[in-house]
Amino acid sequence: MQPEPSVRLLVIAPESRAPYSGMLPGFLAGLYAESELFLDVAALTEQAGGWFLRAELQSIDAERQRLVVKRPDALGGTVLPEIAYDLASINTGAAPRDAFPSAHPNLYYVKPLTHLLQQLPAIDSALTGQSQCLAVIGGGAAGIELAMAFRVRFPEAKITLVVKHPFERDQALAKGATQIEAALDARGVSLWFGEVVEATASAVIFADGQRLDCACVLVATPVAPPQWLSASTLPVASSGFLAVDTRLRVVGYPSLFAAGDVVELSPPRARAGVLAVRAGEYLAKALPAALKTQTVGDFKPQKQWLTLLNCGDGEAILIRGNWSFRGGWVWRLKDWIDRQFMQRFQVQPMQSTALMRCEGCAAKLPGDTLKAHLGGMFEDAAVTESNGQLQMQSIDGLSYLVSDPHAMGWLAVRHAASDLWAMGGQPQTALALVAVARAARPELEADEFRLVEAGIRSAAEAYGIRLIGGHTVALQQPMVAVMVSGSALRPIRKHGAKAGDVLVLSGPIGSGILLAGFRQGLVSGAAIDGYLRVAWRSLGAAADAALHHPLSAMTDVTGFGLAGHIAEMLEEGDLSVRWAASIPTYSGVDEALAAGIRSSAADGNQRYAGAVAEGAPSPVVFDPQTAGPLLAAIPASDADALISAWRATGASPVVVGVITTETS
């Protein structure tokens, strides 16, 4: 909340949001909405003036102070250039431990929580129906809470909590053992004491040969060190977890801090969320001090802490020292503590009433300005003929719309290549202009360039483009521009839509609204994740498929918005658009529109669209797009065939309107 101007803050996480484990059982039991469960790490990073990289840690070279990170598979799975650090703080969590061999089709590990939440629809499906049964393996706090949460979620299901040892053997639960067993019994959750050695296709098998038939298995047993740790040369404790000293520094490496489930404290402590929170509070002081070559006192983890177990139905169990209570008042206490904790990390909306100028393709000059000065209409790409072959060229530039240089390099290539795809061309070569942010240290400028350049190369490789050169500068405002060249057998023009043509859009729109809202603290980072997963995809296959259909016109939807680009597609004459009842949008766009969020380019785009804007079903048609979808005009008799062909490429085509005459 108090950014240090001389420090570049870089936050790396696989997704924009992180679930808070303390509220997960309440969410599963229906006590919290999904939106209340998550911390918006990307938005917090944005507010703190930092970079947010959507990536997973692969390894750490602590001698050279370098990180190796990889994009999630949904964003291409690319390994990024090494990330240099002066100071790093690691809290990746642990990994699920393969507790026993399994052939069960519906067995899920509780950690990491993001994976469990992704599997929740499959869990719900497995437990839907008559006399279904769930086995929760693990007698710690997580297993106890999950068993009671799923009791509320599925009142008719048979739920069994499998515990290897009596609760009295767990130091954190011992004094509450009687309350825990009574709470489970009162809710119809069976207790089974035993060690699971195998899970077959329909049951779990115990060491004594007994079996428990179950439709679904949740494993909440102790965790294992994460895979990235085995790929690194870092000191580990006898448990295999990262060894840290009394100041949460990795032993022997004072520039590398670590906390949470990935570390082994000295002396050892149980892995508990409360210790991670306390470590966070300590690091909030220790990290700024370390940047100034100062130190703070030792981290002093608690030997005992307040344990609160959610029963899922308005009651909870409290354990502290020799005291143990159960009741509604305990639940209200837990709920108050959890909500107070989450409130500390809520993104605060911008207070300024001035409209923030949007970045990316929304930063381009308005269409009517360009038309007035350049005259006439312009195609997506320039087409020339050389030795009997048609050559295409286009150039596009983007200021940073996300605080991720590698992503901006990728998006710039995707955005520029779309101009050729939209004309039925195949981009073949590219030149790039990279403007990094001016920095006091040349190393920071070099680090940024490496990330941008790697993003450009990764996208070029993915799209079959050869990067042949470029230019670099350092400016106050970073940006990436890419010129692409290619060829085409038969260019598809932007202009030429005729009366009766159907307008088909290859995917959702609304990126300008999402990005404007994100910058204002009103749209979640998860919505930006969803946009990026779509924007990453090539339009090449869809463009190739379109060549086999009698298109009247085609373009890509970018800075002038859907309505503006439709206006460009119309031939000279009295043509207009009969809009569809709705327009496909990215997740989160409709809510942002309802909150009054608009891109700063929307008004100019509405003016540029002219009469086409009349009758539009939503302001989203004026929203500028970066790396947007294809838009085709095709005779109605051929529209279904084009839609089927686009679906076969993985696109999500939708009819958004019909070209009409003004009197039809």
Enumerate how many helices there are, as a single number: 20
Please report the total strand number as a whole number.
32
**Biggest β-sheet description:** 5 strands, parallel
Q: Strand fraction band?
A: 15-25%
The helicity comes to 25-40%
Mean pLDDT: 90
Give unreliable regions as ranges: none
For the CA atoms, what is the radius of gyration? 28 Å
What's the CATH H-level superfamily name of the largest domain? PurM-like C-terminal domain
Oligomer: single chain
As laid out across the biggest beta sheet, the strand order is 9-16-10-11-12
Q: What is the distance, rounded to the nearest whole angstrom, between the alpha carbons of the first and last residues?
A: 58 Å
CATH class of the largest domain reads Alpha Beta
CATH architecture of the largest domain: Alpha-Beta Complex
Q: Which structural class matches the secondary elements?
A: alpha/beta
CATH topology of the largest domain: Phosphoribosyl-aminoimidazole Synthetase, Chain A, domain 2
How many domains? 4
| General form | globular
